[in-house]
Amino acid sequence: MIPASVTRLCSNRPVLTVSRLSENIQWERLEIPGLAAECGASLVVGSINRGEPRTTILAGVHGDEGPWGAWAIHKFLSSTDVDELAGSIKIIPAANPLAMEADSRVAPLDSLDLNRVFPGDSSGSYTQRLAAMIKSQSLEDADYVIDLHGGGSWCVNSFAFIFPGSEILAEAFNPPFLLESPMREGTLTGYASNLGSKVTSVEMGGRCVNEGVWAQRIADGLKNALGEAGVLNRVASYEKESIMVGPSRVLRPSRGGVFVPELDENSVGTTVNRGTLLGRLVDPATMRTLEEFVAPFPETALLLLRPRVAVVEGGAMTYVVAPLS
């Protein structure tokens, strides 16, 4: 039994509370001009302002990649003390809401890839108007832009894209692999980079038994990245383990069938020797092997893989691999 004197002493002490970013962020639901009434879509934007520098964090640009990025963002918000904040943060956890609702890469209204239409068009189709709203709400005044992608509902990823002059952002996530970003027209990060923002695109996590581990890893990466950027008053703390890899290669089936993996989700983010069997495409009726996917490089980095048996169409992305630099 605890003595009454101790109970009284404890009850008289002030209770120390910690205020988290999640408790202080202001959320706003914005209708997409000219389209909200007919499609029911809206964009949710969160913000917390402490001056400069200004950072924008987005997730769910591709609908089949969320809610893992949003989960990681909220892990970050709920575990970061508001007193650590030195700058401003703007957050869009579900950047492509109709695509996410359909568990599809693109929204069914126009089937356009949101990550290929920036800066968008306020008088265009749904996806073009969505891009224009994201641009005006979160990109035009951002010093840093972090775009969270991932394997999503069908695969798991393990890398981040490096942009010239923004290397420290990608490195702060300490992904298994780092990859130079390709120059693609209309991408969110490409557009933001052209505006002068320091940017990265993070491709980690997805649906697998380790999805909670990946979400926490991304949340920790956000803390490190914002510490490096000066948005948080904290020193980034991590042992740099990322490996730079060469240009990536996508392995795709030449026809439709059933995909059967030989490696599971624990293999993503590792390297295998040339010739290692990664998976097979089989006939759905006879289960006869139609194609084999093998590691093409002496040391093959596994950037993306499908960890589950799945029906796939011809040309579907099955593996993303790269040679060690």
Describe this structure in words.
It is a single chain. This protein has 325 residues and is of the alpha/beta class. The protein has 2 domains: 223 residues, Zn peptidases (Aminopeptidase); 78 residues, Beta Barrel (OB fold (Dihydrolipoamide Acetyltransferase, E2P)). Helix content is 24%, strand content 28%. The chain contains 9 helices and 17 strands. The strands form 2 sheets. Strands 1, 2, 3, 4, 5, 6, 7, 8, 9, 10, 12, 15 and 17 form a 13-stranded mixed β-sheet that branches. Strand 13 and strand 14 form a beta hairpin. Helix 4 crosses helix 9. The radius of gyration is 22 Å and the shape is globular. The protein starts with a helix and ends with a strand.
Structural key phrases:
325 residues, alpha/beta, Aminopeptidase, OB fold (Dihydrolipoamide Acetyltransferase, E2P), 2 domains, 13-stranded mixed β-sheet, 4-stranded antiparallel β-sheet, 9 helices, globular, disordered N terminus
- Describe the sheet with the most strands: 13 strands, mixed
The low-pLDDT segments are 1-11
What best-fitting shape do the alpha-carbon axes yield?
globular
> If you compute it from the alpha carbons, what radius of gyration comes out, rounded to the nearest whole angstrom?
22 Å
H/E order of the elements? Answer: HHEHEEHEHHEEHEHEHEEEEEEEEE
The CATH architecture of the largest domain can be given as 3-Layer(aba) Sandwich
